[in-house]
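Its record is set out here:
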Amino acid sequence: MAVYQLDNDLWFPDPHLGEEDGLIAVGGDLSVDRLILAYSNGFFPWFSFKHQDEPLWYCPLQRFVIFPGEVHVSHSMRQLIKKGDYRITVNKDFKGVIRGCATAQKRNKDEGAWLGPQMIEAYTELHRQGFAASIEVWEGEELVGGLYGVNLGSSFFGESMFSLVPSASKLALIYLAKKFDALGGKLIDCQFETPHLKTMGGRYIPYEEYIKIIKS
């Protein structure tokens, strides 16, 4: 097992050589070109911006994903959708969503907070160039939840979500899955398992199956 030091060249090591938790490399930058290369091969950056100056890169060999057509919509969520209290949009306020993901529930105050200025700038630039997207949930004119991630081909790589009202992030994910499925999307990468993602259809697949899907 090893962690590789990246340099100015655009490359990533064989993920099978990394640590058990998926950590495989440190360093490099968060340029658009490097991020696209990373996601195209199953890598993603994740590091505490308060304690780490260089990006840490992960590529777990067991991938937690949701297949868009398999998203589970509970009875309570069906009822919430039916009520129509919230409006959902796509790419109307990317900056608002990434800011919400960074600061909701005072996440940016946590010692392990990872969505700092460097990451926000990098993904905002990805969005500006058409490689990152957001789903917004509105109550009236107020942004109350949403998610953002990287969209390459038929795969969506979820980065973060937030809710200021109950279930707003679930609404965003359901909307993403339904729309993505209708457009021929094949996979939503969740990166890490959480209880509510598991209840919504998230499951593990091996890296070999995962990479075939995102390369197809």
User: Anything to note?
Assistant: Residues 168-182 form the longest helix (15 residues). The helical segments are 32-40, 75-83, 94-103, 117-128, 168-182, 195-199, 207-215. The first strand starts at residue 4 and ends at 6.
